[in-house]
Amino acid sequence: MAGNDNSEDRDVRDDDLRRRFAELRLEEEARASEFVLPAPSWAGHGRRWSARKLVAGAVCLVAITTAVWLRLVSHRPAREPGTAVASLTEWRSPTDFLLETPGQELLRTVPAIGVWQNYTNAPGAGQKPAQKHPRVRKQVLP
Amino acid sequence: MKQTDFQGELGRLHAASFGWALWCCDHRREEAEEVLQTAYLKAMEGSAKFHENSSLRTWFFGVIRHTARERRRRRWVRDQVFGRWFVRQPAPVHPPDPEAAASGSESSRALLKALSGLPARQREVLHLIFYQDLTVEEASRILNISLGTARTHFARGKDQLRKLLAKREGKHGGK
What we know:
Oligomer: heterodimer
Distance between the termini of chain A: 153 Å
Number of strands of chain A: 0
Mean pLDDT of chain B: 82
Largest interface: A-B, 24 and 31 residues
Structural class of chain B: mainly alpha
Shape of chain A: rod-shaped
Low-confidence stretches of chain B: none
Number of strands of chain B: 0
Mean pLDDT of chain A: 73
Low-confidence stretches of chain A: 1-6
Largest sheet of chain B: none
Helix content of chain B: over 70%
Strand content of chain B: under 5%
Structural class of chain A: mainly alpha
Strand content of chain A: under 5%
Shape of chain B: globular
Radius of gyration of chain A: 52 Å
Number of helices of chain A: 3
Order of helices and strands of chain B: HHHHHHHHH
Radius of gyration of chain B: 18 Å
Distance between the termini of chain B: 57 Å
């Protein structure tokens, strides 16, 4: 019962608000401008405007890209004039001489049979060794 | 829907649409007219399409609200970005300016003044339901909120509005 009274009371109070809003609506509708739909030229103007926006956007994009590229180029470390860049195959390490060991030719060359090569810097190393054993002449057996 | 029917329906809705645009623009008449024209343009060009999922009024009110918000956002961005180079426009007053807007009756002025004390979402729900005679469901669709949220805003808004009106009338009655 009490609930019904409460809901009725609510409805009455809603009606009061509705009445106030309706009054406001009447006043505002009386001041409303005339109904005028945008003319086709307006629509065309809208399309032209969006095309202009597209072009402006593209120009901005190109300008930004160019600016970024120029900035990157200007910040690249400058090379001294006249400095030739060494080719990768010609380049040698400054400490390369440390790898030069005595007798490394042994590893690089194939020794020839019958030819004595001097591979070391030891005294007398370049001379042909003395024949210890006399040559025996081969004889053809009967 | 045929183009002529569509235009006719928009014409019939014009007064209500103007009222809603006024509310979306905090009762700035010139801005409301521009927003309404932009919304018409969107409807005519087809950038806002009516799929007949709801009533034309629900759909078009949504377009108006979206257009007004878009406009406000653009202005804010423009002020933030270019404000330091150009003369700054006076910042928009977010709650409606009832004294300037309502040159009507004392009752309407009191109502607008009381509404200016409510949060925006409550104001919008109350306007759509009481002013535009929409249901809570339709209001929730226009505002893109859930039905439950719309009901909550409606109930709280009514209570708050009654309190504000009573306070205002008591103050004026006491004088």
